Every structure is written in C-alpha cells, then in structure tokens.
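User: Could you check the structure of this?
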Amino acid sequence: MSLDNGLSISQDEALQLLAQSELVKELTRDWSDDPLFCVWRLIALSEIPFAQHLEYTDRLIDQVFERLTTPFGFSLSGDEKYFLPCYNAMLISAMCRLGQSRAEHVLNGVEWITTYQPMERGLSVSTSKLNFDRFGGCFKHTPCYIGVAKSVFALLSYWKATGDTGVSEKLEKGKEYLLDHELVRKLSDGKPITQHIMDISFPESYHLNIVELIRFSSNANLLDDPRSHFAVRYLEKKKGKTGWKTDFRYRSNGYISFDKNGRKAGDWVTYIINHALNGFNTEKFAVKE
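Assistant: Sure, the predicted structure tokens are below.
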C-alpha cells in the first residue's frame, strides 16, 4: 500500500517488515518438491513487494527454473507433455513481478504465447511434442478462456517489466478478446464463462476469477471501455459495508488464501478491488442485465 501511494521504502526496511508478517511466515514455513506446491508459493510470494529478496523465494525461483521449464516455457514437470498455456502464463507473470522478466525461460514462454496462443476463435494449434487434448482441450474452435486470459495477463506483465513492443500486437488482440466477452460473459447467452469466474478470491489459482480480470483491466487502462462495466457493476453490487468477502478458497498443495475469514470483508481482496477501481465513477454508465 505504501509503494502504491508513492512512498520510498529501502530494501532493509522492507525485509524487516516482511520478517514481521504472519502471512510471509506462513508462506515460507514449509517446503515440498511437488511442482504445484512450487507454483502456488511462487505466485503468492510474487504478489508481495520485495519478496524476491527472501532466501525462500530465491530457492523457489531456482527450483522452478531447474525442474519446470521446457523449450516452450513452463510446464508442470519439465516435460513438454505437461505443458499447459495457463500455468505457463501464471509463472511468467509471477517471474516478471519477481524481477526475472529477462530470464531465458521467461522469454521462451513469452515467445510461445506470441507465436502460438490464439486470441480469437477458429484457429488451430499444432505443435510438436505437445498434446493439449489430454487435459480437456486447450484449443478447439473456441480456445480455453482461462488460458487466453492468463496469457494476456502475462503479456501485460512482461511488457510493463521490459517495454518490449514485440508483444504489443498480440497483447492488443488479447485485450479485445477479453473485452468482447465483457471480461466474464459467454458470447452466446451472457452467462458466466466458467464456474468460478465470478468468485472473489486471492491470490490467483487455476480458476480464473473476476478479481484478476478487474485488476488487469485497471492496469491495462480498460475500465473506461463500456465492455468492462458489467464486471465493475457486479463487484459494486457484491460490496459490503466494509468491503468484499472471499467467497471461494482454492484447494491445492501449497496454495494459501491471503484472507482467512470469509465471514467478514477480506483485507487483501478489498484493497485490490478498491485500488483497481480507484477514481472510477460507477454511476456514470448503465449495464445490460
């Protein structure tokens, strides 16, 4: 919050504060070589400024680079057979937040997105050694929306970290694809795209949710686009007197929810949503119900 408000914090001061954090203690207390454990802990720590200077985070980064990389980017095993666009994208975003945007494996993952990831319907994807159908089909006539969205998030994270204009064309296509779906709705009937897309939860998990999408839209300066307004109004309707409650907790080895008590407003989700919507006038537009 201090950094968002433009305050200067030294690395030494930040590390002292992190050492006092109960959340950081929980995130760094245990260890497992299980790939999913490493994925979720790395993503969680990447959301906390200065966490890249923790020895535990350094160890996680080394573990992911050593065990979960392929020539195409990040997989769940270091084997191309377990390469999934959504996990590749989530790890790219996390690595960019942790100062690893120029690492070879991150660049490989970004290149895969810009070369192969569809940002529109009707494109076939065929790459040697990769078999997406075994996971339910990442790419059919309509590409998996989770994979598309998280890949667009990754491109924005990479672009903000590097200024590399080589991803701009793909990033713009991805933005339009998400906006055409009003971030969360099917084109066919306007219903939520996935079972968990309207959930309020943090940090991110495999299940794409509206908190991720609204934060992305704010960071990409898309909230003034009318196609973002349905999601904004939905969040405004869900807001309680003191903020938003976490209404879904993902369960997976290594995953830790930042807001523990679902009976009251969560500090993290409330801050993130408020920060995304800061200065946005939600009364100035109408919304299709």
